[in-house]
Amino acid sequence: MLKHLTSRLQKNIDSTLMTLISSALVVGLFTLYSASGQNIILVLNQLLYIVLGLILLLITASTHPKYYEKFALPIYISGLLLLSAVMFAGQFSHGAKRWLNLGIFKIQPSEIMRIAVPIAMAWYLSKRANKRHAIDYLIASLFFILPVMLIINQPDLGTGLIITASGFYILFLAGLNLKFIIGGAIGLFSLAPIIWTYLHDYQKNRLIILLDPSQDPLGSGYHTIQSSIAIGSGGLIGKGWLNGSQSQLDFLPERTTDFIFAVFSEEFGLLGNLLLLGLFALIIGRSLIITSPAKNIFTRLLAANIVLTFFTYIFVNIAMVIGIMPVVGVPLPLISFGGTSMTIILVSFGILMSIHSHKELVGSS
Amino acid sequence: MSFIKNSQNIYKSRYFFKRRLTILSGLVSIAFFVLIGRFFYLQIFKYDFYKNLSENNRIAVIPNVPNRGLIFDRNGIILADNYFVYTLEVTPSKVTNLYNTIDNLKPIIELSTSDLKQFRKILKESSSLDSIPIKTHLSEIEAARFAANKFRFEGIEIKSRLFRRYPKGTFASHLIGHINRINIEDKEAIKKLGLERNYKGTDFIGKLGIEKYYEARLHGKTGFQKVEIDANGHSVRILNNIPSIEGDALTLSIDANLQEIAENAFNKYRGALVAINPKNGEVLAFVSRPNFDPNHFIGAIDHDEWKLLNDSLDKPMLNRAINGLYPPGSTIKPFVALAALESDIRKPPFNIKDPGFFKLPNSKHIYRDWKPFGHGMVDIVMAITISCDTFFYGLGIELGIHKLSEFLSQFGFGKVTLIDMFGENAGLLPSPEWKQKRFKKPWYLGETVITSIGQGYTLVTPMQLGQAVATLANGGITVQPRLIQSIQNSQTGKIEIFKNKTVQELHLKPEHLELVKEAMINVTQPGGTAPSVGAGAPYKIAAKTGTAQVVGMKANQKYNPDRINERHHDHALFIAYAPAEDPTIAIALVVENGGHGGSTAGPIARKLMDYYLLKKVSSNKEVNKLSTLESEYHD
To answer: B341, B512 in Cβ contact below 8 A?
Structure first.
């Protein structure tokens, strides 16, 4: 029994990648303990989700990729249904309707779409690989435009942005002609004024405040000012674990979730930042290496997308915390507090490992 | 051949894919270097700058709390405003021994036990970083005396704060409501709405009435001041100042004069009144008696006073207009009559000979009319005019509870009116389904009998009854009742006028409405149940009296007001609209334990209509004299 399990683990789990991910999770738990004001309950809560996520990772890693391809559409549609359910039966919190209460626990369907959208797009584009027309890219785009509109409406600008980026990665990797990409970019820019009217007031504010944080030191600008102070005062080696005065003295808002990087940065300094970023780079690099031999179009699109989306999360979150992007509300993967987000990240790595361990078995399409 | 082509295609697309992935990987590397560059900038180049900021915490952000919006009546009379007060406040985190410091304060500023009690209560609910009032409303002399001794009291300051005031005291207290200190539940609610930022520095929030319902408009927008502070926390200079934006000014549809007349007319009686303009739904008067003084809630209502208000047998804190539940009594009859007419039964010349009681077939139980030996020949118009119970008993049975309940619900019985005030009660419109669910018992025919004269399970709020009368007066068209008339934006000065919203049109036959109106006019004429209400009026009044039993009476027991406790006297109800031909005011009111509707409740309605339609203020005596005419009636 045990032997069977270990051999299965050896077969399906890439131990190098798993070690890197676990290191990041440990760093995350320690940072969370400090950020939460040494709240062990919160840390245990997060640990619970990590355990759940790891179990799901094992399951997804040992599932053959052909099943993801086979069930791409049902996964996508049920995700979309959950997302629409939020609109009607969702729970309000912090001025947004993002959560769905399922009795025992609450989920954030927008997080589920993060994985459902690339699966569906990769499925569609690989299915049309041999006779692909321009219209196919348009149809594939609808796979992410639809949920993104629902998500921005919640409003959750951050997740909407990430899924949009993730959609573009697939289009780009699947071979969308450069003409269309440039055309699309121009189109998006000309749409900007219309999107602007569609945004909620607080989202507009955040974009304005990005340009001038001092505009609003009480509100969103306050986040950026306080996090800049935290990071800057961390210096080269940081103030030490549990010693970040900005973080511990309540100056830093949202410090267990979106702004957790500022806590880390204040306490571990530039060296800590470089090490953490290095760890993330290793995770990205290792992921690319193990999945690049994937022969089948679906799996290689999906794998590359998972890696690039993981990177986007890291980049958008850190860029926001250090004040070079608007405060859009995106968690730092593997580190920030948050159940659904943590679970989905681990699930996506599970899929990645499944693509890796089944690469020899996946024939050409 | 095709195999080669196919594999070439794959090779090509694989190559292509790799190229594109390489491009993206390049972008990823660049992005990482951008982040690293920014780390160097913040943590190496600007290290000293940020280290200083963090060590001294040199920048403080102080909220500029906005002035709360004013509230006016429809004619511009101020119902709620603000004024400046000196308060003595302490920030506990800056004080080493809080209670010693307070003791040292006592010789300088008089602190009553209730001041200290209140202080301890607020202290418990606040963070040690908050500035907590020890005493509000300091006199100039006290302020000066403290200023001279300030050096001895680190962490204690005199602040000038804006306080809410209700200049007319107890006037319209349930309508205007009041504000009070933000408590833990309010904080949760603010958090849920994502408004924490806008409530930084705000200590008070609307708790009741208009103050609560329009909180979002009245509060205004918090500004801020970014100041540089020295190590002692004193501000050195202002770096940035964004002023607050005052809350918007509300103009209510209430006519303060009319409201005052109504409140005075209640005298010592408990009860409630709602007056509505049936054409546009504007509520002209909104009374709940007894009142309370909302000014006592601001800053410091002490525990004893709160207990007194809450435990009083008179329940002054109960908003009777929307939360008082009363059996409608005979005021339901015009609506029941309409139900019969619309179902094509009981149309004139249909009439009955009333023997003074009603019996269900195969039953011995006697349902009495209020008049011992009956009214003689009665048709539907007469039945309303003289409030003949017997006529309605039989009518209800023939109509059946389902039809009756369904028709009455169209007039809003059993439903909230959605007036702009929180916590409205929906009343109760009974049906067999409701009874089954509530009591797990079947509906009895006898319950239909008493439901048709407004007794039994049916319960209404004065607001509901007011809306129903307004709908009747407006020919079956319900206009959403509301207390707001307009809101003036404090920044732009733009006035947002609220539009009338038609809720429903009932499409009642005009000739049926006409019959009911005729009957209701007759009520206020000699021969009706409230002739004094119509006596000498230069306009026509359509009305209906009602009486609701407070204590159940045995079948053969006679109600004798002189022999029972005043609190067990019947409630008097009255509905009216005028001028009957083209109504501009509809009134519903309840006088608790007021006895018969025509004699105690009717004169109050008449006073309101006289003022509203003629701008005439009739004295109490004048109307009371007339009401003696009616002592013989008792529906």
So the answer is: yes
In this structure, which amino acid lies at residue A245? S
Strands in A73-158 per DSSP E: 91-93, 96-101, 106-107
**A86, amino acid identity:** V
pTM greater than the 0.80 cutoff: no
Non-local (6+) Cβ contacts of B33 within 8 A are none
User: Which among A231, A297, A319 has the least Cβ separation from residue B43?
Assistant: A231
Select from B97, B82, B392, B95 the least CA-distant residue to B220.
B82
Residues A28, B53: Cα–Cα separation, whole Å = 27
User: Per the domain annotation, does A96 fall within a domain?
Assistant: yes
Q: pLDDT (tens digit, 9 = 90+) per residue, B245-284?
A: 999 999 999 999 999 999 999 988 999 999 999 999 999 9
ipTM of the complex: 0.89
Q: Is residue A198 part of a domain?
A: no
Q: How far apart are CA B173 and CA B288, in angstroms?
A: 8
> Which of B17, B38, B53 minimises the CB distance to A322?
B38
What tens digit of pLDDT does each residue of A125-154 get? 888 877 777 788 888 889 999 999 888 877
Least Cα separation, residue B186 to chain A (angstroms): 14
**Cα angle B323-B326-B329, degrees, rounded to a multiple of 5:** 150
B26 C-beta neighbours (distance < 10 Å), count: 10
Length, in residues, of chain B: 635
The structural domain count of chain A equals: 1
What's the number of CA atoms in the CB half-sphere (13 Å) around residue B246?
Answer: 17
Q: Single out the residue of B339, B321, B307, B284 nearest to residue B585, CA to CA.
A: B284
Q: Is the CB of A172 less than 8 angstroms away from the CB of B24?
A: yes
In B150-214, alpha helices (H): 173-176, 184-192, 209-213
B156-165 vs B179-181, strand pairing mode: unpaired
Q: Within 10 Å of residue A288's Cβ, how many Cβ atoms?
A: 18
Candidates B14, B29, B54, partner chain A, best to mutate (most A CBs within 10 A) = B54
Are A304 and B21 a contacting pair at CB < 8 A?
yes
Q: A195-228 pLDDT, tens per residue?
A: 777 777 666 766 665 555 555 555 556 778 888 8
**What are φ and ψ of residue A174, in 5° steps?**
-75, -5
Q: Which residues contact A123 (CB under 8 A, 6 or more apart)?
A: A68, A69, A72, A73, A298
User: Cβ separation of A232 and B18 shorter than 8 Å?
Assistant: no
From the list B93, B204, B60, the residue with the least C-alpha distance to A218 is B60
- Are the CB atoms for A115 and A348 separated by under 8 Å? yes
Which element (helix H / strand E) includes A27? helix A15-35
Interhelix angle A2-12/A40-61, rounded to 10 degrees, is: 80
